[in-house]
Design goal:
The protein has 331 residues and is α/β, with parallel strands linked by helices. A 9-stranded mixed beta sheet has the order 1-4-3-2-5-12-9-13-6, with helices on both faces. Strands 7-8 form a two-stranded antiparallel ribbon. The chain is globular, with a radius of gyration of 20 Å. The protein starts with 14 loop residues before the first strand and ends with a helix. The protein has a domain of 78 residues. The chain has 10 helices and 15 strands. α6 packs parallel to α7 and α8 packs across α9. Helix content is 33%, strand content 25%.
Length: 331
């Protein structure tokens, strides 16, 4: 059993960083590129990012693909290529990128996505900040702002994650993003503009969850449970050249850890706790032997206790955010 991280980037995969010495601008927003398998026009892609004017670009590479790094780092000195020693899951990649960037905001993109609306990096950052009266610093409104994602025919794709309960199990349905400020349970495929300070304060993604869907669910639920916001900006639009990745909803080890961390805790007054009476049901559902199940349950119970005062409600309250939005829309 892997121990739940209690601090940001508690365990980091060994890696090498190449390039990225030159800063393009001082907008407060950098770009993070997560690379899909396949051959994409990387030179054109980085040229577009250069025109957008991000402070830096951080490209998280495959552990095996390094053949064009020397050429690209010479042509694009503002790009920092991160070369891990092994393949990393989605959360590990984003956590590592957050530790590599110095900008207050970072935009996680895929190499098959293109920014088609949103303006320059400076304009994007300006929209996500507001100046406080009498103070020089800016305050960011939310943990993560998610974009509208469209296909090559400019049709809006269903990338807004909405929680639903089916047969007493929490799942999500995908909706089209058509309402400004609409909440999403999590950033689809990890894509969105993150507030780096807030992201680090909530310890980023739990890298022990190997299933991407449950890793995203854990990040999103934890964010909303702890009073953070993940919401849509209609002014930010991306187009997708390929097919959207499918999500694996299988209830396996990652699901049960997600359940114990997010759905099982009870909120009372000003804190949360994972009650002992949740254990028999977890033991039955997980199918583990009693010793392994108790070890997992105890680990999650200790984690909840350590963070107990960060909760602002329980899972039912979080699910209610979307029920309220639906009621307002139909009322």
């Amino acid at each position: 059993m892997n121990t739940i991280p209690t601090t940001f980037n508690e365990t980091v995969t060994p890696y090498t960083a190449v390039g990225g010495k030159e800063r393009i601008a001082s907008t407060g927003l950098s770009a993070v590129i997560l690379n899909r398998q396949g051959r994409y026009p990387r030179r054109t892609f980085f040229q577009e990012l250069e025109k957008t004017g991000f402070d830096y670009v951080i490209s998280i590479e495959s552990a095996s693909r390094h053949y064009d790094i020397e050429e690209l780092s010479g042509r694009f000195p503002f790009v920092r290529f991160v070369l891990p020693e092994r393949e990393m899951n989605l959360g590990e990649q984003i956590n590592l990128a957050a530790s590599e960037t110095e900008s207050p905001l970072f935009f996680v993109l895929r190499n098959d996505l293109k920014i088609i609306a949103g303006g320059t990096a400076e304009r994007m950052a300006e929209r996500l900040t507001r100046e406080e009266t009498g103070e020089k610093n800016s305050v960011f409104k939310r943990l993560c702002t998610v974009p509208v994602i469209m296909n090559s025919r400019y049709e809006i794709l269903p990338t807004m994650a909405v929680p639903v309960t089916r047969r007493r199990k929490m799942q999500t349905v995908a909706m089209e993003g058509r309402t400004e400020g609409r909440l999403s349970l999590y950033p689809f495929d990890g894509v969105g503009i993150y507030d780096r300070r807030r992201f680090i304060q909530m310890n980023g993604f739990d890298i022990t969850l190997c299933n991407t869907h449950w890793q995203l669910m854990d990040f999103g639920f934890r964010a909303h449970l702890w009073g953070e916001e993940i919401a849509l900006s209609l002014q930010l639009k991306l187009s997708c050249d390929g097919e959207l990745p499918s999500e694996d909803f299988t209830a396996e080890e990652s699901y049960y850890r997600f359940y114990l961390k997010n759905l099982a805790p009870v909120f009372r007054g000003d804190h949360a706790h994972l009650p002992l009476h949740r254990f028999p049901n977890f033991l039955f559902k997980s199918g583990e032997d009693i010793f392994s199940a108790w070890e997992e349950f105890s680990e999650c119970r200790s984690w909840v206790k350590k963070n107990q005062f960060r909760w602002r409600g329980d899972a039912r309250k979080v699910a209610g955010y979307w029920d309220e939005a639906s009621a307002e829309k139909t009322g």
